[in-house]
Amino acid sequence: QAVVDKGLANAKAYGANEKWLEKMEGYTGCVALFDSGKPGKTIALRFDIDCVNVTETRSPEHIPNKEGFASINDGFMHACGHDSHITIGLGVALWIAQNKDKLTGKVKIVFQPAEEGVRGAAAIAQSGIIDDADYFASSHISFCANTGTVIANPRNFLSTTKIDIRYKGKPAHAGAAPHLGRNALLAAAHTVTQLHGIARHGEGMTRINVGVLKAGEGRNVIPSSAELQLEVRGENKAINEYMTEQVMQIAKGISISFDVAYETEIVGEAVDMNNDVELIKLIEEISLEQPQINNVNSDYAFNASEDATILGRRVQEHGGKAIYFILGADRTAGHHEAEFDFDENQLLTGVNIYTSLVQRLLA
To answer: Per-residue confidence at 26, pLDDT binned at 50, 70, 90?
Structure first.
């Protein structure tokens, strides 16, 4: 709540309309609804809006610095291109408002928080707001495609689970009475090596990474606390569940071996998803109509995770169809790097692809 309160205070300080802040009711995402008042299909379009915990480069050659739109908050940067997703989503909303008389049915534009760490989509799915959608579409800019390319059918979305493990031991004097302590740091260190030794599943891809290990209180104190932040991934739900269960068993075993208390917390999840053929073909056709696009790839192994899949699968489970595609854009550095920037000429391409999709399905 403290983070939300600080964000609201900052928004007010920067001149945000307080009427709209009140409508947000403390939430960090929103859904814009267009209802034509005429019978027709319902489309849900999802755009993620969060940043990354990276401090943006201060290099004078960095275009956001040259043109005055670099992050002013250390440790927070749009280093993944989600600001482009916001822009495209707003462009689509503007187009719908300007062309509302030509459309039937409904459009729901989902501005989703917390994609990083795959924490945001689940709450939106559970709200039921997109359960009536006949079609769902989302995308990512750049990533694995350069300017001129659209990947209409990325496949091999990996299911993933983000897990925190916390160990609680007992502090003691490291010189005079180490035998009285219970070393949580040592437990955590052994956990890391054990986790990376999990046998890989024979029926599909697996991934594991321990990204954070924090422990201890001081040089001369037996460490009484430790925390690990990690993720597992699997080619499908069953394989990901296998990896998750192995993590839980190792955490339990280590706690017994080192006589420390432990707790685990699942802090984010995403699922695998297959794009629907009808929408793949539509994105292919629409992309080839764009003058900026000269290459459409309809079979690309994504081999990564995205919580848009939770929303897409939700729509599919309720009888609708879903797609997630990649809008290519040249970039100055990799995603999540301090020097990241992308070819902004592709913003209009993105708007045109989405508005053409809306036209095809609702005109």
So the answer is: confident
- Active-site residues, by number, are 48, 116
CA dihedral 356, 360, 361, 363 (to 10 degrees): 100
- Provide the number of structural domains found in the chain: 2
Kindly state whether residue 195 falls inside one of the protein's structural domains: yes
Tell me the pLDDT tens digit for each residue of 52-77. 999 999 999 999 999 999 999 999 99
Residues 187, 193: Cα–Cα separation, whole Å: 10
Query: 347, 355 in Cβ contact below 8 A?
Result: no
User: What would you report as the CA-atom Rg of the chain, rounded to the nearest whole angstrom?
Assistant: 23
Single out the residue of 76, 108, 81, 78 nearest to residue 92, CA to CA: 108
**Residue 193 covered by a domain:** yes
Tracing tokens 């005055």 back to the chain, one arrives at 68
The pTM for the full model equals 0.93
Same domain? For 241 and 282 the reply is no
The residue range of the domain holding 192 is 159-270
